[in-house]
């Protein structure tokens, strides 16, 4: 178990990315072990979204290595497809298909990407919708649901593909306060079940509860990374201290 826990799920080595002339990611080195829960925080514009979007090639990095399990992320479509099968992603604005029902949102990729027969895909979807406690809404359209419900559907939709890693990009920051908890509870449950997770979030309660490591980014760099206790109570860099003083 010990060695299994140390298996690297995501490795970034010397990753650099530019948007035109703008150097958005600078020499990122990061290894995420199987079952590890990482929280990434930092000021707006520091490159957090770009970093996690590079991991499943929603953005392309220009320098360095990104390896997911054993697959290097290259321009080879086979590699990209393999990696996307392993990696689930949940966005700030849910990104559900508005013209499909909740159930159809959850079966679409299973049927088209995995070639799972419809009945089977629906069974998987209903099991996961039940897990996020939204099975009663399966026949509704996203627009008929609250933000918290839509985000839980988005999480269930990702889980339908049976990913090994889940990436979250500020999953609760578009939600009304009373809906944040229902989404965080789902994420906490996932963490407790051993899912490997990289979460961009400023929910510091969540970070304290589930993170094995908190990473602080600023201006495209990882400035500091530590266990939550050290990170929150004994931050090392002045930039981290300033950031924490603004959000806590
Ligand atoms: P964060 O998620 O930490 O707020 P982002 O990764 O979204 O930061 O963005 C980092 C920086 O890169 C910001 O200055 C942003 O304006 C810029 N940026 C993000 N996406 C693009 C893009 N597609 N083209 C050009 N600049 C971008
Ligand atoms: Mg962002």
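^ Assign residues to that structure.
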């Amino acid at each position: 178990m010990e060695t299994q826990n140390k298996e690297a799920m995501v490795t970034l080595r010397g990753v650099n990315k530019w948007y035109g002339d703008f150097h958005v990611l600078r020499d990122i080195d990061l290894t995420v072990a199987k079952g590890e829960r990482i929280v990434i925080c930092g000021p707006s514009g520091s490159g957090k979204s770009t970093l996690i979007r590079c991991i499943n090639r929603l953005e392309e990095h220009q320098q360095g290595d990104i390896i997911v399990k054993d697959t290097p992320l290259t321009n080879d479509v086979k590699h990209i497809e393999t990696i996307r099968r392993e990696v689930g992603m949940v966005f700030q604005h849910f990104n559900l298909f508005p013209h499909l029902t909740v159930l159809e949102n959850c079966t679409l990729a299973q049927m088209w990407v995995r070639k799972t027969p419809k009945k089977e895909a629906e069974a998987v979807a209903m099991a996961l919708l039940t897990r996020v406690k939204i099975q009663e809404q399966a026949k509704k359209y996203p627009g008929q649901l609250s933000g918290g419900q839509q985000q839980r559907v988005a999480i269930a939709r990702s889980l339908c593909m049976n990913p090994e890693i889940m990436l979250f990009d500020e999953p609760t920051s578009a939600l009304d306060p009373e809906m944040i908890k229902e989404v965080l509870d789902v994420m906490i449950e996932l963490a407790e079940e051993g899912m490997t997770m990289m979460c961009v979030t400023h929910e510091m309660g969540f970070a304290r509860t589930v993170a094995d490591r908190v990473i602080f980014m600023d201006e495209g760099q990882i400035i500091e990374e530590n266990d939550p206790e050290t990170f929150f109570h004994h931050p090392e860099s002045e930039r981290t201290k300033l950031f924490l003083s603004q959000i806590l």
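The chain is about 40% helix and 25% strand.
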